[in-house]
Amino acid sequence: MIREMRVRNYALLNNICITFDEGFNVLTGSTGTGKSILINALSLLLGEKGDIGSIRRKEDRAVVEGIFTPTDRVNKILRNAGISEDDELIIRRIVNRKGGGGVYINDSIANLKVLKEVSKVLFDIHGQHEHQLLLNEETHIDFLDAFGKLLKDREEVAALFRQINLLASELNKKVKDRDNIAERKELYEFQKKELESAKFSSEEYKELKEEKKMLDNFEEISLIVDSAIAKIDKSEDAILNNLSEIGEDLKKVSSFDKKLASISERMNESHLILQDAILDLSRYHDSLEYDRERLNELEEIIDRIEYLKKKHNRDYSGLIQLKKEMEDKIFDLDSLSREIEALKEDIEKGKVELSQLSRKLSEKRKEISSGFEKMVLKELQDLGFENAGFGVKFEEKNIDEKGGDSVQFLFEPNVGEGMNPLSKIASGGELSRVMLALKSILSEVDKVEGIVFDEIDTGIGGSLGKKIGEKMQKIGEKRQVLCVTHLPNIASNADFHIKVDKETKEGRTITIIHPVEGEERIDEIARMLSGDKLSKTAIKHARELLEEV
Fold it and tell me: Per the count of CB atoms within 10 A, which of 4, 80, 114, 459 is most buried?
């Protein structure tokens, strides 16, 4: 249960602290005082999305903090999230005007996912807009499954359904890929054949170009090599001979000047180096051979490859990659066909399993529907529908994430009118009572710690309001109830009454909240009966309402 809530700078809630009690808590006050804003603040505290528009004007941030009584289920969630347990559960939400905010649980930073897990255990918040859920027949199956604790079974169906859809999407993609490849197979085979010239590695192709370059310039190379050999070793004025003579001469005079000794040695070294060079050059000369056929072959290969590079706007490495892509696509045609057959087989197996799971889920739904109908009828009788009828109608449909059942609630407010879809015959007041009946049942099943009802008394008169008040008081015997209402008949049944008012302070409107009891509570009930101007009759009636509880 929630024991205390503090709110700062949230809409009209400037700086308020509100305490709650066990059982049935009611919040009353004139229209526009901020009752529903309080529920919005509680919704924010329990994981609803923050809105910077809710921050009080001229303030940088809004803060909502709640102190709750922890339970074993809450503590288990906290342990799994690595958050420390305590005698109190303190939740704080911050919304910043510049964006972002914070979630804190027991002073530890938390995320919304953990907060929402905790909030599912703490409270079920029901506002008047939720009546529309009953008008949407697609939600009826959710009420039934929640009652029967079938949501885990349903998730198994949903998980397998999603898996089959993923496989089907993958199958469609592979079929399209295969069809596209099949349509373009001739093109791929042509391009692959065209790219056969790109059969060399990048390094090999570089060497081919070097070889062609040599053959293209063979004559010049040969002439220069011949000339070099002659100048170094074969001519009358050969460099080797001259170096040898120079070395000997320097050696003779080095005895006269030691500085010449090192120069003489370097001349001898140069002679040896040049001898090695002329040996290599002579070998190169002997290996030179002009091959016109080889040059023609190289020209054909290189011209072809340069043409392909220009055609496909790729370098040589890109041509090799393109060739591999063509080979892969041709290979993929057979590979995709095998994968497609395997996917079809997996999908068929999945559909058989899905059908079995869905059938079992449907059987469980039908088994629990009778008990569900009886419990709803009992709750409706407590709420003034003494002779009403309520039923659950099943129809088969194509299996989806919720299984193969279409569920529709049938309702007969009065005997003799016949059972008809709830969405077609229920008035606003009737919808409120049916929803309250469902919430009463589901709160027992879910073991939620508290329920919030925000102005669900739309279309309800005084006598029915009394019955709803009694029902909320009865629910309050097992779990905490917070209710915002305009009906005195509901408010008079509360165990703890909170009045919400507003005042202008320093030119700004703020909300004021405080519990009322005794004469002050009588006056508040009387105000709800007659308006702001209290009459003796209204005060008398208010006393009677409170004495009847």
Answer: 114
